[in-house]
Structures are given as structure tokens and as C-alpha cells.
Amino acid sequence: MIVHIEGKVRMKGDRFLVIENNGIGYRIFVDSQTIKISPSKEEEISLWTHLHVREDAMELYGFKEYAELEFFEMLIQISGIGPKSALGILSVAPLDTLKKAISSGETAYLTKVSGVGRKTAEKIILELRDKMGELSHAEGAMFREEQDVLEALQSLGYSKTEVREALKNLPAETKGTNNRIKEALKTLGRKF
Questions:
Q1: CATH class of this structure's domain 77-132
Q2: Backbone angles phi, psi at 62, to 5 degrees
Q3: Of 89, 107, 155, 175, which has the fewest CB atoms closer than 10 Å, so is most exposed?
Q4: pLDDT digits (tens, 9 = 90+) for 157-173
């Protein structure tokens, strides 16, 4: 089984990278964030991988962090969640945010993925909540703060996708609901 690949990026597709290792090119499906931060052609990249074998295909899925690979493998063990849906879930928000959403029972993050409806999102939460553990009081407050920021920016007319993308790019030291809204608005304002 292929668990890790390191090599040069030969090509970037919409949802995959082609990485050359020892003269062999591997097509590796990755989430949207990995595509954005992956190096340009001919530069080295290192990915943790999952080899998914089906009756008619063998596909590699790649992740920058080992924790993302573990989460992906937990997701695909749930009936009804395939590797493409699991990768879509990982593209929605940073891993910590997804774990917090699952721990708090928040289906909104999961239902934004094509093919994941309310029932499937509830099933994911039901099966993974215990594995994610209970949120501490501080983590719960942080998650609620992020939800408040999301709702405030949506009330200004921005879509959830635009808001989530802006929140992903906020500096880690940005704290407080008002500060996070102001910083996100700066990012959203540059797009127009």
C-alpha cells in the first residue's frame, strides 16, 4: 500500500496533482486547499496518501497532514460516504473546524458538500462524535464565535462559500467576533 509520496509536481488539475517519483507519475486527488498551497511545477511536495481500490479503478488521495489522512479514513468507513465525498468534506473547512462542528452536532458544514444531505450529515455526526470527543468550554465558545461571524457576514449578503474562504485565510492571531468580522470584510472587499 502507498502511504506517502514525495516528488516533483508535474501537473495541477482541478482536483488532482500529478507527482513524479523515480520517473513514475502518480495522479493524486487532493482537497481544494492543497491544490492552492501546492508548489508550482517542478518543485518538491510531500503528501500522505490513501490508496482506494475499487473493482474498476485504483485511486490515490493525498493530504498535507497525517491527521487529515486519519480523518479521511474515518469518513470513508461510514456507509454512504465515498472517497470523493470525504475529500469534499475536507475541502469545506479546516480540519479543526470540522472536528468542532461534528463534536457540537453542527450539520451546516457537512451539508454544503455535493451528495451530502441532512440525513448523511447526521449519520456522520452520530458515528464520529464519540471519536472527536467532547468540546471543552473554551473550544465550544470559539466554535460559537465562528458561527456568529459566519451568520453576520451572511446577513451582509455574502455566500457561505465566500465567507468560509475568507475565514480560512484570516491570521491565526485574529481573535474576537468583531475583529474577525472586520478582517474577513477586508478580504471579501478585495474581491470586488
A1: mainly alpha
A2: -120, 150
A3: 155
A4: 888 777 777 777 777 67
Q: Give CATH for domain 4-63.
A: 2.40.50.140
Output the pTM of the full model. 0.69
What does the chain look like in DSSP terms, one character per residue? ---EEEEEEEEE-SSEEEEEETTEEEEEE--HHHHHHS--TTSEEEEEEEEEE-SS-EEEEEESSHHHHHHHHHHHTSTT--HHHHHHHHHHS-HHHHHHHHHHT--TTTTTSTT--HHHHHHHHHHHHHHH-PPPHHHHHHHHHHHHHHHHHHHTT--HHHHHHHHHTS-TT--SHHHHHHHHHHHHHHT-
> Where along the chain do its domains lie?
4-63, 77-132, 137-190
